[in-house]
Design goal:
mainly alpha, 1 helix, transmembrane
């Protein structure tokens, strides 16, 4: 009867004193060592993501992706098409012509010659070599039967001697093997088993427990350090927002925006309106000055050269006024009376 209490099915096995004694100090030490590492790791992750998204990815696209795309699209593809066309013109078409009009007829001729040679060889094999082979086989069969009747006792004696020698050698080798087995078992196997059973296995169990606890402590400390790092990050973000972002936002909303509105309504708009009025007055003055200069120049020209002569009216071929040509009138050459 088993007096030790066995764990119920589905329940974890009870932990030993060594496991419980190692777990708590190991977890405390590992947590103290891992928290700074995790915080530095999270900071490096944030910086790395910013560099990847804001610097490295645009540089990669600008320096590698776009030049390679342009090179592939505008250099490699046209060059490959040109090389393919040249290969087709210079290699494929000549090779197809050579195969169709040179190699195919030559191959047909070689095949016809080979069929003739094969037929001749088949006739020689069937009519000449086969009877000769049959005769040689019959002769060798008779000679073999005679030699077997003569040498059978000799071969039996040689086989019996060889069997005895093999049995003797096997017995000697088996005895040497058994002796070497027991020597190796006594000098090597039994000490190695004792060393494994009483030294290495206990030490390995202890090291396995310590290693497992250290690994579990690392995972537990890494998760806790992640939560601590997240809390510290949120605290720093909140502190930065309340120290810098919120005051700047308050100054912008409470001070800069009203001041900007006042400057816009009191200074910028009147100045813009005055500038537009000055522009309109200036354009009107310039137009009046141009008109005055144009009239003064015309008066000066009339004073020097007199009034210009009126142009004489030039008779036009087409009638004007009521005499214009219509479809119903008879003024054309074809309908004129």
């Amino acid at each position: 009867m088993d007096l030790e209490k066995q764990p119920a099915p589905g329940q974890p096995a009870p932990e030993g004193c060594l496991t419980v004694a190692v777990r708590i100090p190991v977890r405390i030490v590992v947590l103290v060592l891992v928290v700074p590492v995790r915080m530095v790791w999270d900071a490096l992750v944030v910086v790395g993501r910013f560099l990847r998204d804001g610097v490295l990815r645009p540089l990669w696209r600008a320096l590698v992706v776009w030049p390679l795309t342009a090179l592939w699209r505008y250099v490699v593809v046209p060059l490959a098409k040109a090389v393919g066309w040249l290969g087709k013109v210079l290699l494929v078409i000549p090779l197809v012509w050579l195969y169709r009009y040179v190699l195919t007829p030559v191959g047909h001729g070689i095949a016809w010659v080979a069929r003739g040679i094969a037929a001749a060889l088949e006739w020689v094999y069937a009519r000449v070599l086969t009877p000769i082979g049959h005769g040689i086989v019959w002769l060798l069969t008779g000679v073999g039967a005679v030699l077997a009747w003569i040498f059978t006792p000799v071969w039996r004696a040689i086989a019996w001697c060889a069997g005895g020698l093999v049995w003797l050698a096997g017995t000697i080798v088996k005895g040497i093997g058994v002796a070497l087995y027991w020597i190796a078992r006594v000098l090597l196997v039994l000490p190695a088993v004792a060393l494994w059973r009483w030294v290495l296995a206990p030490v390995g169990r202890v090291l396995a427990v310590v290693g497992r606890e250290v690994w579990d402590a690392l995972g537990h400390a890494w998760r806790i350090a992640g939560r601590i790092s997240l809390a510290v990050g949120r605290f720093l973000g909140t502190l930065l927002r309340w120290i810098f972002v919120e005051p700047v936002r308050w100054v912008y909303r409470t001070v800069l925006t009203p001041v900007g509105h006042v400057v816009r309504d009191v200074v910028l708009r009147p100045v813009a309106e005055a500038a537009r009025s000055v522009g309109r007055i200036t354009r009107a003055a310039l137009a009046s000055a141009r008109e005055t200069v144009r009239e003064a120049r015309a008066d000066f020209r009339r004073m020097l050269f007199g009034e210009p002569r009126a142009r004489e009216a030039v008779a036009r071929r087409e009638p004007t006024g009521a005499d214009t040509r219509t479809l119903g009138s008879s003024t054309t050459a074809l309908t004129k009376d």
